[in-house]
Amino acid sequence: MGRIVVISTGGTIASRWQGSGFAADADGREVMATAPLPEGITVEVVDLFSVNSPRLTTDHQLTLLRTVHEVLADPDVDGIVVTHGTDTLEESAFLVDLHHHDPRTVVFTGAQLPMGTEGGDGPGNLYDALLTAATTRGLGVLVVFAGRVHAARGTVKTQTVAHDAFADPSGEWVGKVGFGKVTVLRQPRRPEPLVLPAMPEQAPRVDMVMHHVDADPLLFRAAVDAGARGVVLVATGAGNATPEFTEAVAEATARGVLVALTTRVPAGPVTEIYTQGGAVDLVAAGAVPTGTLRAGQARTAVLAALLTPGGRADQERALRAALGDATAAEPLAVA
């Protein structure tokens, strides 16, 4: 079915016991040795790095992004699988998807149980990911876990330890894998891809601040004072905070800071309904609502926008372009 390149970055799927806990230390070839190959697939491994995904930096993610583009420059490659830690997989997958302009599929997968564990999920996830990368086209970047195929956009980790770890709380699966076959159920909606960014000397600082009962904008202002060029406000409800936060957002945007507005609620869009510090006022103060994207991916969109060449206006346009249509998927036309 094709030639697949596996880019290994570490995570639980590459983790072994370290005496007091598990950590990534296996290379990609060791990870590949745990899984059977779908018939007709040949695999090449790129050992990019091997770290636990909470330790990833923007430099790691941009290196991964550029590596994906370099691999796809070879027309004989039929698809890519990225093995990745689950904690920040949703952010890396979305960053790659924002810049993905190729019909060939890039699939992110990993594991909830370390390699070599009895009943571990890594080998099955890897098999399904390889099959998906080899047999699908035009779906962008995907996350394949526990027999389900998800679009990168909107998909987040919803379970800390369960095997079925990922979902889009506001959308449906893209497909499923079973009996040696990938069934595509929906076509993800994706905006036009962003231009591949240059590697910055220093990545822009992008912080997240959560609203809650008794919250004030002290931490929001501290982020701006610390040099944040972007801030994600994780609001309550449909995107609501307080008049004090509205004032802080207006101050930040006046200083050229890119502010995105999301919510701590698991599903549903940010919506301009309420005033007195609600989304109506926060958007009027310059915050950009992120639809159904939640904190991690909203931050990724801000980061990608800040890496776009040009001034503040260009970056806000890039952010709005990256957000695109918040609807995760639509049914395929059936003949």
TrEMBL record:
<dbReference type="InterPro" id="IPR020827">
    <property type="entry name" value="Asparaginase/glutaminase_AS1"/>
</dbReference>
<feature type="domain" description="Asparaginase/glutaminase C-terminal">
    <location>
        <begin position="205"/>
        <end position="307"/>
    </location>
</feature>
<dbReference type="InterPro" id="IPR037152">
    <property type="entry name" value="L-asparaginase_N_sf"/>
</dbReference>
<dbReference type="InterPro" id="IPR040919">
    <property type="entry name" value="Asparaginase_C"/>
</dbReference>
<dbReference type="InterPro" id="IPR027473">
    <property type="entry name" value="L-asparaginase_C"/>
</dbReference>
<feature type="domain" description="L-asparaginase N-terminal">
    <location>
        <begin position="3"/>
        <end position="188"/>
    </location>
</feature>
<dbReference type="InterPro" id="IPR027475">
    <property type="entry name" value="Asparaginase/glutaminase_AS2"/>
</dbReference>
<dbReference type="InterPro" id="IPR036152">
    <property type="entry name" value="Asp/glu_Ase-like_sf"/>
</dbReference>
<comment type="similarity">
    <text>Belongs to the asparaginase 1 family.</text>
</comment>
<feature type="active site">
    <location>
        <position position="12"/>
    </location>
</feature>
<keyword id="KW-0378">Hydrolase</keyword>
<protein>
    <recommendedName>
        <fullName>asparaginase</fullName>
        <ecNumber>3.5.1.1</ecNumber>
    </recommendedName>
</protein>
<dbReference type="Pfam" id="PF17763">
    <property type="entry name" value="Asparaginase_C"/>
</dbReference>
<dbReference type="Pfam" id="PF00710">
    <property type="entry name" value="Asparaginase"/>
</dbReference>
<feature type="active site">
    <location>
        <position position="86"/>
    </location>
</feature>
<dbReference type="InterPro" id="IPR027474">
    <property type="entry name" value="L-asparaginase_N"/>
</dbReference>
<dbReference type="InterPro" id="IPR006034">
    <property type="entry name" value="Asparaginase/glutaminase-like"/>
</dbReference>
<dbReference type="InterPro" id="IPR004550">
    <property type="entry name" value="AsnASE_II"/>
</dbReference>
